[in-house]
Amino acid sequence: MGREEKQMAGVDRGTVGVMAESSKLHMGYAEETCFTIGKRIAADVPVILPVGAVEAHGPHLPLETDNLLAARYARRLAALVNGLVLPTLPFGQVFSLGDFPGSLSLSNETLTRIVVELGEGLYRQGVRIFVLFSAHLGNLTALKEGARELWARHRDMCTLHMFYPDLQKLAANVRESPAAHVSYIHACEIETSLMLYLAPEHVDMAKALAEDPKLPIDADYTPTPWSEFTQTAVLGNARLATEEKGRYLIEETLKRAAAIVEYEKERVRSVS
């Protein structure tokens, strides 16, 4: 068994105990005081930034869906890796749904600058593992660029950028409807299932739609607002969503995410 497999096995076996133990501590970075935060920060303590978006998610999910998912996923990840969670960054890059009612967007450049400046501040505080978890796939370009810039400035700092590791691969095990796109999940069977597990109080299944949008052949090769192929912002059959599917997808992707973070913790310890 390789090191990564051992890490994932350890995460799996120890999840309940770690969650229970971590619940005794504040996981929120900003919940600490200026007198206590210094005792929590260490080179091998990951600091997680949940990144979301405010955008259309059909009639059954709120505009803040990605913020709810990012915040609650980040808390679970922090419990597994003994990390700290920053307040959620609630705005993201929302080109695709920018012309839908309620959607708000930052440019990639603005989002990248936020990541870099937060990373610089964390570095000065002694943080050496910065985890950018986004529940909105559209943020990943900017987060990756921010991670690269921080790497260029501080080779002793690891900045991870992630979106539910292996989600589409795992989704194939539970989905009952065809995927609208090889990468996107949006207000569909899969994302609605995530919400039913992490934030069920914000889901109105009575309003869930069964959609089958057809993306144009050039959608991945030229800027394509989603209003060109959907009027609801629902990319699939949300009526097939269940809490059980969401539990499986969240818990399995968390194992992978935790294993990645633990790998970086070992790397940091080896050079400290």
Structural description of this entry:
- With 272 residues, the chain is α/β, with parallel strands linked by helices.
- It has a single domain (3-271), classed as Creatininase (Rossmann fold), CATH 3.40.50.10310.
- The protein has 8 helices and 4 strands, in the order ααβαβαβαβααα.
- A 4-stranded parallel sheet has the order 2-1-3-4, with helices on both faces.
- Helix 3 (65-81) links the parallel strand 1 (47-51) and strand 2 (84-85).
- The chain is globular and about 50 Å long.
- Residues 1-24 have low confidence and may be disordered.
Main β-sheet description = 4 strands, parallel
Counting H and I runs of at least 4 residues, what is the number of helices?
8
List the strand order in the largest sheet.
2-1-3-4
Mean pLDDT: 92
What is the CATH homologous superfamily assignment? Creatininase
Strand fraction: 5-15%
Q: At the third CATH level, what is the topology name?
A: Rossmann fold
CATH architecture: 3-Layer(aba) Sandwich
**In which range does the helix fraction lie?**
40-55%
Which CATH first-tier class would you pick?
Answer: Alpha Beta
Indicate the low-confidence ranges by residue numbers: 1-24
What shape does the CA trace take? globular
Radius of gyration over C-alpha positions, nearest whole angstrom: 19 Å
Structural class: alpha/beta
- The number of strands is 4
First-residue to last-residue Cα separation: 26 Å
In N-to-C order, the SSE pattern is: HHEHEHEHEHHH
User: What number of domains?
Assistant: 1
